[in-house]
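Hey, I was hoping to borrow your eyes for a little while. No rush at all, and the record is pasted right below:
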Amino acid sequence: DLQICQHRAPTCCTKKMEESYQAAVRRERTQSIQALNFELKYMIVGHITAFQEAFESLLRFAENRTSSLFETAYRPMAKEAAEPVKELFTDISLYILGAETTVESAVLRFFDSLFPLVYSRLINPGITDLSEDYTECLRLTRQDVNPFGHYSKNMVTELSKSLWASRMLSQALSLGIEVINTTEHAALTKECSKALVKMQYCPHCQGLTLIRPCVGYCLNVMRGCLASVSELDAQWREYISTLEYLTNEMAASHDLEIALTGIRNSINEAILHAQLNGPQLSATVDKVCGQPRQQEGNLSSDNIVPVKEATEIQTFVMAHTSLNSKRREFINYMKRSRTFYASIAERLCDGDLVMRDSSTCWNGEDVV
């Protein structure tokens, strides 16, 4: 009653043993594909982690630099500017990690929050009436009066270029993991598991436990079993090319590090532009929002903690170097894995599975 290991000679197998063999080949094939995938997946996961750590380090550095701008140059508004600065960098982080947001909305929201502070603390430092209604009026007026000139739009353009490449790379790496995980658990067809039993275990039914499959026979069986997986070859090669393009984009003119550290200067230029045009801004705002109450004397700016910039610069240099070397190392490894899906049958038939250094092997029917 054997279905797979039918042979003219007497056999020591039963139908139940054949079923056990089918379960065994399915388990073994999954394990061997997982072992092949492990190095590739480990490399991608490692790069995702290294990329995110270096990115977070750069982001903290850029955020501290921006905070220190307010604490050194614009002390009257430093305390109140802390929250908008934090929100801006949180939004940037979320964008890179794939959140449904845009760089433009993050930057413009920041400048909307900044204008009431610049207006009431720097342009008209005597204002005390910062009611919710008046603040909201200033926020809404910002888009019409354009107090920060072209600097806010320039910041959107610069950040969008470099952060786009980083966002795409982050998503591409996650996609790579998804593809590998899916191929790991690709179900074997009934025909395939029968072919694998015939190749690996039918010799056992004749008592030939040391005979292994012939190389050509193994390749034919594996290619048949993995036809659906090897079809990924063209797309995988294209995927590697895309990764290469994105890492080059990040390292070239759209350098993430330069863009993040440039945020401080962009904000500084924008505030200076608003101060230079203070009288015209005041005239326009008074017409739209009315005249707020004034108070003599300077406003206090207590509880400002200065930023230790020296250690931050050291951290930045280390993160920058780490990110660049990780990029190079990673893309060189990925380039070597271009043929991963095309050569998967060859790699599974390599090693202990087949008979390489012997004159006898199993061809599916007999020892040859």
Observations:
- Residues 296-310 have pLDDT under 50 and may be disordered.
- Residues 115 and 139 are 7 Å apart (CA to CA).
- The chain has one domain: 15-291+313-349.
